[in-house]
Amino acid sequence: MRRVGVPSQRLSPTDTLGGRDLFEYGLEGGEAVLLRLELAPATIVDTTPVSGNMMEMVVETPGAAEAYAPMSTTNLVDGAWTNVPHSNTNNAGTMAITNLGYSIPDASGTNEVIYVLADKTNEFFKIIAE
Fold first, then answer.
1. Quick one: pLDDT band at residue 5, thresholds 50, 70, 90?
2. Among 2, 93, 98, 114, who pairs with 86 as Cys (CB 3.0-4.6 Å)?
3. Sheet holding 2-7: strands in order across?
């Protein structure tokens, strides 16, 4: 548990940060203690085929891009999701399994853009909070 140093009277059992991230607090010696932090989910807002089997994915991240990562599965029934290598350029630059810190901003500057290989007949993508 990590101390947040805020008197407990100022916090409810759950509190939010801008309505996006859920914090759960407990009390320890009269001080609020951060028990858990759940990041708000990211949203895939657009996908566009780029060339061959390369797909551009635009992702809205309510928090820091480094806190999110892409995953995929070919079978929604078995629940086996795997990390997805992605690039920050559409010419299949270095493909890396990492977080969305390895991305570029979209034209609006508010979303993250990554490029993934979509080389399977059926493939489903999601963005997780790490």
1. very low
2. 114
3. 2-7, 31-38, 21-28, 14-17
DSSP 10: G
Q: Is a pLDDT exceeding 90 seen at residue 58? A: yes
Q: Is the pLDDT of residue 125 over 90?
A: yes
Q: How far apart are CA 123 and CA 21, in angstroms?
A: 29
Of 52, 68, 50, the residue nearest 127 (C-alpha): 68
Contact 118, 50 (CB under 8 A): no
Q: Which of 130, 125, 115 is nearest to 44 (CA)?
A: 125
- pTM for this one? 0.70
**DSSP codes joined into one string, 31-64:** EEEEEEEEPPPPEEEEEEEEETTEEEEEEE-SS-
